[in-house]
Amino acid sequence: MSVKTFRAPSIQEALAQVKSELGVNAVILSTRKSPIDPRNPYGSGGFEVTAAAEEQKKPLVRKEAPVRNLRLRTGVSPLKASGKIPERKFSVKGEDAEEDVAAVLDRVPEDFSSGASATGVGWQQVQHELVSIRDMLFLLQQGEHIPDFITRHPESLSLYTRLVRTGLTEKRARQLMETSAQAAGAGKEALSRRVFVEMMALIEGMQPFESLTGQRCVVAFAGPTGVGKTTTIAKLAADLSLKQKKRVGLISVDSYRIGALEQLKTYAGIMGIPCLPAFNREDLQTALRQMQNREVILIDTAGLSHLDHARMEELAGLLGGRQAIATHLVLSAATGRENMREAAENFSQLSPRSYVFTKLDETRKRGGILDQLADYPLPVSYVTDGQRVPEDIHPVTRKGLLQRIFETSGTP
């Protein structure tokens, strides 16, 4: 086996040297930050990668070592020398690189028994190096270079990678890390806490039905087509009427989608609450008068394309100018950042008071919610994460929303 150490100013250049000299099947043994010139420890920083590759001319034969007393705590017996390179390795090519590293990390035991490491390197250090390799490979596969603050604070690599994995934009992740970098000197835990505080500052929870004091609350739910407005209204109506025992009424102003009114009436019939249609301002005023004894009135609107400016103006004319109607903008977390951005811009003429983020169960990239709150700040009233009525709707708190964003990819 040929073992070589490569030094370069960046991890990309070091890995490129590995691939060029040892081939795509090279095994990464270790990676660390170090001076480019080992004779000058005070020189500019770089990365050092140690890699190995099988020599083709003669097979690698390893003499069996007396490892009889070396056993993993998992109870697995020591491997016998076979003269073959183990197949479990880290490839440096494409998407397989990350998958191989992740697979190995999933299979390795938590630690070794005392004296089990033949090289004398502690298992925690080995595990840390493996995780660092995985995180670097992930960033490289995203087409990103290693940010300067990671070079200055290597302990921030795994945290930065987790932010990017959630779907948070690389730009936003960098901003969060740079803002929190002053805490990095205190270690990874202090940095994580600071980043958590910075993200918390982006979130403002809103509970529109928590403190009703005799005055009725009228809320319209608007948003793009297919984000789940009608289902969200059904969940909320069930929670308010069946659990909180409030007097609830439903109004549909959706005259475009076939079956929209019938669907809402079906939900209303099951819950035993009134549901009325309203297709113009006069109808809406009449429906509101008929429901004057209701504590909460929920209004379902037609889903709109961000390109349909005529219908957007029509909806704005129907709901606009009435201070008694609070509009909540419903966005699907599964649609991606660009769609949410366009929706926020186009529905801004309705002057929404808060967001409702739906379909969190349909995506693992929930970090786009934080981008949305940073770029188009509004409070968040509810999130939904399933089809069950009324179980899968949740009021928002700062900590609760962050937990939901990071629960599929690891908390920071």
Automatic annotation (TrEMBL):
According to its UniProt record, where is this protein located?
Cell membrane
Keyword Nucleus set for record: no
Q: Name one GO biological process term.
A: SRP-dependent cotranslational protein targeting to membrane
Record's InterPro entries?
A: AAA+_ATPase, FlhF, FlhF__GTPase_dom, P-loop_NTPase, SRP54_GTPase_dom
Q: Which Pfam families match?
A: SRP54
Q: Name one GO cellular component term.
A: plasma membrane
Give every AAA+ ATPase domain span.
215-351
Gene3D superfamilies per the UniProt record, alphabetical: Flagellar FlhF biosynthesis protein, N domain, P-loop containing nucleotide triphosphate hydrolases
Where in the numbering of this chain does the SRP54-type proteins GTP-binding domain appear? 216-407
From the UniProt record, which GO molecular function terms apply? GTP binding; GTPase activity; signal recognition particle binding
Its record classes its membrane topology as:
Peripheral membrane protein
Keywords of this entry: Bacterial flagellum biogenesis, Bacterial flagellum protein export, Cell membrane, Cell projection, Cilium, Flagellum, GTP-binding, Membrane, Nucleotide-binding, Protein transport, Transport
Family label: Belongs to the GTP-binding SRP family.
- PANTHER family on file: FLAGELLAR BIOSYNTHESIS PROTEIN FLHF, SIGNAL RECOGNITION PARTICLE RECEPTOR SUBUNIT ALPHA
**What is known about what this protein does?**
Necessary for flagellar biosynthesis. May be involved in translocation of the flagellum.
Please state what the protein is called: Flagellar biosynthesis protein FlhF
Q: Which organism is it from?
A: Desulfobotulus alkaliphilus
